[in-house]
């Protein structure tokens, strides 16, 4: 399972975060959400029609069921989703709706009781449970005003509206809380919320069925416990797959770094100063072109390994100080294809990177090799590496020539934009160089 790099970061950081106290920013934002929840519950109790539903043993059973369902959780980004919807729907339909958010907050604390007692979760994080219960306010309000009586299938449009309000509230509040507390981009959080919404929507009908049965037979709530056991097994298997995916991602990175070290040992210029310079420059250009996290990761691997195929080039040809013969040049020109084949044998992410490695000597005008691609048919990662590779080569000392001055290399890049290089990449690259090198900045001012 290949995941988004930012998601991988969130998944790696999620567990360590629970053992630490809230920082000042997170504590302030969560305290605000908690106070607002208490105010919203009080307002709902005051303005909603009075409910004839009673609070008794059923309420305790539902709190316990909610806590148990919450133990069946699936990691999603910085947090997780769970099977709580199976218990939440009966709580909304069998208990006074205004009370449900507070009961949910209590059930969330009960669910985490083992972690608190064993110090795996810091007590500071009890505050989060009130914020976590915020998404229940919306469906509670819908039920309180539109279907305050006993649960019945004829009220399904109201129940559907309550579910929709819960999903919307959960998405808005979760993204807002993560942004305020941790700075997680809302766009990424909203993408992650899609899985949460799908799981909650699938479990809601089961919760409705349990509520309909428990209206006359409260003991029927016990019947959902075996289902929770099955879901727990599936959740455990998913956690194992996530662990495997993270380990695989580490393996890809480790393989890329190892192959880079092999290349450096074989050719100090290609694998050392040059490749590292291309990586740093390519990533800076990628950020300026607003590449996504996944593409930046592949760009990093591609820049690190773009010359990996040179491991198959004989050393006497690779390090020859003079001009290569046509036969020798044909051998050198095979390195993009050799590099792709090497990475395809590893597979996974590096197989995708192999496409970039194959194309890093293609030209914008179609005059490159090995496939004669042109324009946008050349992968963007390869276009970036091509320009950064050329700039690094021009500004680095070689065995047969001195490094070119930066301003001359910048002028050469501009001269070849639209023929050898993608004009947009050249513009981004020269801007990066100008920002980092005052000498190049002066050259750009003169060119403008």
Task: Write structural notes for this entry.
The protein has helices at residues 5-18, 24-47, 57-70, 85-94, 100-111, 113-117, 127-132, 137-146, 156-182, 186-214, 225-266, 268-288, 293-305, 315-318, 326-332, 335-346, 348-359, 380-394, 406-416, 423-436, 438-447, and strands at 73-76, 79-82. The longest helix has 42 residues, at 225-266. 39% of the residues are buried. α2 (24-47) runs antiparallel to α9 (156-182), α3 crosses α5 and α18 (380-394) runs antiparallel to α19. It is built from 21 helices and two strands. Strands 1-2 form a two-stranded antiparallel ribbon. A hairpin with a 2-residue loop joins β1 and β2 (79-82). The protein starts with a helix and ends with a helix. The radius of gyration is 30 Å and the shape is elongated. The chain is an all-alpha fold and 448 residues long. The model is unreliable at 268-272 and 440-448 (pLDDT under 50).
| Structural Rg | 30 Å
Relative helix content: 55-70%
Tertiary shape: elongated
Mean pLDDT: 82
Number of strands: 2
Distance between the termini: 48 Å
What's the order of the H and E elements? HHHEEHHHHHHHHHHHHHHHHHH
- Please summarize the sheet with the most strands: 2 strands, antiparallel
- The assigned structural class equals mainly alpha
Uncertain residue segments: 268-272, 440-448
- The order of strands across the largest sheet is 1-2
Strand content: under 5%
Q: Helix tally?
A: 21
What are the main properties of this structure?
448 residues; mainly alpha; two-stranded antiparallel ribbon; 21 helices; 2 strands; elongated; disordered C terminus
């Amino acid at each position: 399972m290949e995941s988004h790099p930012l998601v991988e970061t969130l998944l790696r950081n999620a567990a360590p975060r629970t053992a630490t106290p809230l920082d000042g920013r997170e504590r302030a934002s969560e305290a605000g959400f908690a106070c607002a929840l208490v105010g919203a519950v009080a307002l709902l109790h005051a303005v909603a029609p009075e409910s004839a539903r009673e609070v008794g043993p059923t309420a305790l059973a539902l709190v316990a069921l909610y806590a148990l369902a919450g133990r069946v959780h699936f990691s999603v980004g910085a947090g997780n989703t769970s099977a709580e919807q199976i218990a939440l729907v009966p709580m909304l339909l069998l208990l006074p709706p205004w009370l449900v958010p507070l009961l949910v907050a209590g059930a969330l604390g009960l669910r985490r009781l083992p972690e608190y007692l064993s110090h795996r979760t810091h007590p500071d994080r009890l505050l989060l449970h009130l914020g976590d219960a915020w998404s229940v306010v919306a469906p509670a309000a819908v039920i309180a005003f539109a279907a305050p009586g006993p649960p019945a299938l004829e009220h399904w449009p109201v129940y559907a509206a309550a579910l929709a309000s819960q999903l919307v509230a959960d998405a808005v509040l979760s993204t807002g809380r993560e942004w305020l507390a941790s700075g997680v981009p809302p766009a990424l959080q909203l993408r992650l919320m899609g899985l949460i919404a799908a799981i909650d929507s699938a479990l809601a009908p089961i919760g409705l069925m349990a509520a309909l049965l428990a209206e006359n037979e409260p003991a029927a709530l016990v019947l959902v416990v075996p289902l929770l056991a099955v879901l727990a097994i599936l959740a455990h298997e998913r956690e194992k797959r996530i662990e495997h995916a993270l380990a695989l991602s580490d393996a890809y990175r480790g393989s890329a770094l190892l192959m880079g070290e092999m290349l450096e040992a074989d050719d100090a210029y290609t694998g050392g100063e040059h490749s590292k310079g291309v990586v740093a420059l390519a990533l800076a250009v990628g950020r300026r072109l607003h590449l996504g996290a996944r593409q930046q990761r592949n760009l990093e691997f591609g820049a690190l390994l773009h010359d990996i195929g040179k491991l198959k080039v004989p050393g006497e040809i690779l390090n020859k100080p003079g001009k290569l013969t046509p036969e020798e040049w044909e051998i050198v020109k095979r390195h993009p294809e050799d590099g792709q084949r090497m990475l395809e044998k590893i597979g996974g992410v590096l197989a995708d990177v192999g496409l970039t490695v194959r194309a890093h000597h293609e030209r914008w005008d179609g005059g490159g090799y090995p496939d004669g691609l042109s324009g946008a048919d050349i992968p963007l990662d390869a276009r970036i590496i091509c320009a950064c590779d050329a700039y690094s080569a021009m500004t680095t000392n070689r065995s047969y020539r001195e490094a070119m001055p930066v301003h001359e290399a910048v002028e050469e890049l501009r001269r070849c934009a639209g023929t050898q290089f993608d004009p947009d990449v050249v513009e981004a690259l020269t801007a990066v160089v100008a920002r980092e090198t005052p000498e190049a900045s002066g050259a750009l001012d003169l060119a403008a």
